[in-house]
Amino acid sequence: MQSLLLVMFLLSSTLAFAQNKVTGTVTDKTGAPLPGVNVLEKGTTNGSITDVDGKYSINVEKGKTLMFSYIGFTTREIVVNQNVINVALQEDLQALDEVVVIGYGSMTRKDVTSSITTVKADKLNVGTYTSPAQLLQGKVPGLTITQSSDPNSEYSSITLRGASSLRGGEAMEPYYVVDGVPGVSLALVAPEDIESIDVLRDATATAIYGSKAANGVIIVTTKKGKAGKATVTYSAYIAADKVMKNLDMMTADDLRAYAKANNFTINNDFGANTDWQKEVQRTAFTHNHNVSISGGSDRTSYTASINYMEKQGVIKGTDMDRLIGRAFVQTRALNDRLILSMNLNASITNNNSVETGGDNNSVYDAMNYYSPLVPVRDENGNWTNYVGVSQNYNPLSMINEDLYHHQTKKMQGTAKASLDIIDGLQWNATLSYQNEQFLWDEYHTSQSQMTYVKDNGQAHRRTTQDLKKVFETYLNYDKTFNEVHKLGIMLGYSWEETTKADGYGLTVYDFYNDD
User: Fold this and answer.
1) Beta strand 144-146 with 157-159: parallel, antiparallel or unpaired?
2) Band of the pLDDT at 10, cuts 50, 70, 90?
3) Given strand 76-79, what is the order of strands in its sheet?
4) Stretch (H or E) spanning 118
5) In the predicted model, is pLDDT for residue 425 greater than 90?
6) Taking Cα atoms as reference points, which of 85, 199, 187 lies closest to residue 138?
7) Contact 268, 313 (CB under 8 A)
8) Which of 150, 229, 359, 433 is the most exposed place for a label (fewest CB within 10 A)?
C-alpha cells in the first residue's frame, strides 16, 4: 500500500511539474492594467493574452522564459521560477513611431488599436525553410505551423486564429498579401528576399479584406533597392535530415523465436532478415543558394535575385528542387510626387514522390507491414512479391517501379503607381497578373506490383492552369490638425478574377518497353 501511494505521489508531482500554471497581472509604469498584452513562452507557440483587467494565465514549466510584448512598450523576458508573476512594462518611445503595414496603407505603431505583430528580417527564424511562413514559427502568439518531413509538401500547415472550418488545406490558411498585392502565392517569395512580415490577427485588423481574411492576414514586404553603388550578396546553407526514431517492429529473428515458442510454422519464411524501414530510408541532404544585386540613384532603384534550393526526403525516391527569380525596379517623377514600380516574380518547382495511396499501396505503410522474413529481391533479381497475402506490396518495388513527378511553374507581374495629389492625399493603383501551371506525370512500369496497373506499364498525365488578375485603386487621406487631431480616410475599388483548374488529363497503357 505504501509503495502504491509513493507511485501515485510521484505521478501527481510529475504532472504538476509538466502543467505548471502561471498567473499574474501586466500593468504600465503607473500601475494601470494593460489589456491585450501578448504572453508567449519563448521559442514556442504556447501563448496567452491579458484580459481587460490585465490578468493572464498560462501553463508553462518552471525554468522556461516568458516574453511579455505590447504595442508601444518594451518587450520583457522573465524566467519562470514561481506561479505568480506580475509585470510592469515600460513605454518604448522609439517603437511608437515605427511604421506598421496594414490593409491598403500604413500607420505609426502608436496609432494602431488592433492586434498586429511585426517581425523584421533580423528577427525571423534561421534554418532550412521552404516556405516564408515557417520563418514565423514561435514569433507570433496563436500562430501554429505544422511542417511535414515530405519535401514535396511545398507549404506548411498554418493556423493563425484557430480552427474555423471542418476542412483542411486552404480553408484553414491565412490570407497572404505580398507587397500590397492580395492573394499572391508564397511559392514566389524566397525567404531570403523578405524585409518584414506583418501579421493581422483580430477582426478589426482584417476587416478591410472581407471574408477572405477570416483566418487572419499575413502581409509580406520584400526587400527593395537603395540609392548607391550596386551591391551583390550571396548566401548559402547545407543541411541534413535523418529519422531519429523508428517504430519498434519485430525482426525476423523475433518472429522465428515467437513461432518456435508457440509451436507453429511460418509459411512465408524465405530465410531473410530484412529491416524494411532502413531499406526505405536515407540521410537526406538539402542545399540552398541565393544571389541578389541591388542599387540605384536618387530617382531610380532596382533589385534582382535568384534563389535555388534542392531538398531530398528521408524516404528514397522523394525530393524536390526549386528555382525562384525576382526583379524589381522603382522610379520617381514629377518632383518625387509620382512613384512608378514594376515587379516580376517567377518560380519553377520539380517534385518526385512515391506511392502513398490507400488499400496498403503506400510506401509509408509497406515499410512497416512488409514481412522481414522476405528478401528485397528474389533469386532472379526481381523485386520480391509474396502473393500469399492480399494487398501486400514490396516498398522498394513501389519506390522504383511506380514513379510520380510533379512540376509547377508560377509567374506574377505587378505594376504600381502612387501619386501625392495634395498634402495628405495620395492616390494608389495596382495591376497584377498571376499564372500558375501544374503538370502531374505518373508512370507504373511493367514490373509494378500494383493490382490496378495494366500489363506492360501504365502512364497518366494531367495538366491544369490557374489564372488570377487583380486591379485595385484607392485614395488615402491622412491629416493631422493642431498636432493633436488625426484624420484618416480610405476610399477604394478592388477587382479580382480567378480561373482555377483549367486543364485536361489522359491515361495510356500497354507499352512496348519501359524506356
Assistant:
1) antiparallel
2) very low
3) 47-49, 38-41, 65-69, 76-79
4) strand 116-120
5) yes
6) 199
7) no
8) 229
Which residue's C-alpha cell is 520617381? 332
Helix (H, G, I), strand (E, B), or coil: what is residue 141?
A: coil
**Least confident piece of the model among 139-143, 237-241, 494-498:** 139-143
**CB contact at 8 A, 47 and 36:** no
Give the pLDDT confidence score for residue 154 in this predicted structure.
52
Say what the alpha-carbon torsion angle 181, 187, 189, 192 is, to the nearest 10 degrees.
160
Highest mean predicted confidence (pLDDT) among 241-245, 260-264, 459-463, 482-486? 459-463
Q: Which residue has the higher pLDDT, 14 or 34?
A: 34
Among 276, 99, 129, CA closest to 191: 129
Distances (CA, A) of 327 to 344, 362, 434: 5, 41, 15
Q: Is there a contact between 291 and 309 (Cβ–Cβ < 8 Å)?
A: no
Helices (H) and strands (E) in the chain, counts: 7, 25
Handedness of CA 67, 70, 76, 79 (dihedral sign): negative
The residue type of 477 is: Y
**373, 367, 249: which is closest to 316 by C-alpha?**
367
Asked if 80 and 62 count as a contact pair (C-beta separation under 8 A), the reply is: yes
Q: Residue 493: which residues within 8 A CB-CB, separation 6 or more?
A: 472, 473, 474
Lookup: cell for 18: 509538466
Q: Can you read off the three cell numbers belonging to residue 510?
A: 500497354
Strands annotated E in 359-401: none
Q: Which pTM does this prediction carry?
A: 0.76
Determine the Cα–Cα distance for residues 242 and 92; give it in Å rounded to an integer. 44
Rounding to the nearest 10 degrees, give the CA dihedral for residues 161, 165, 167, 169.
-20
Q: Hey, what amino acid is at 226? A: K
Q: What is the number of alpha carbons within 13 Å of residue 459 lying toward its C-beta?
A: 10
* First and final C-alpha spacing in the chain: 73
Instruction: Give residue-wise pLDDT tens across range 479-491.
Output: 888 877 888 888 9
Q: What is the DSSP string of 186-237?
A: GGG--GGGEEEEEEE-SHHHHGGGGGGGTT-EEEEEE----SEEEEEEEEEE
Nearest alpha-carbon partner for 304 in 228, 229, 231: 231
C-alpha grid cell, residue 219:
502581409
pLDDT tens-digit readout, 193-208: 888 888 887 776 667 7
Residue 423 cell numbers, joined: 498634402
Closest CA to 175 of 209, 143, 139: 209
Where does residue 372 fall: left (phi above 0), alpha (psi -120 to 50 degrees), or beta otherwise?
alpha
Between these two residues, 211 and 383, which has the higher pLDDT value? 383
pLDDT mean over 483-508: 89
Q: What is the average pLDDT score of the chain?
A: 84
Quickly list H helices, 39-103.
93-96
Cα–Cα distance measured from residue 395 to residue 280, given in angstroms and rounded to the nearest whole number: 7
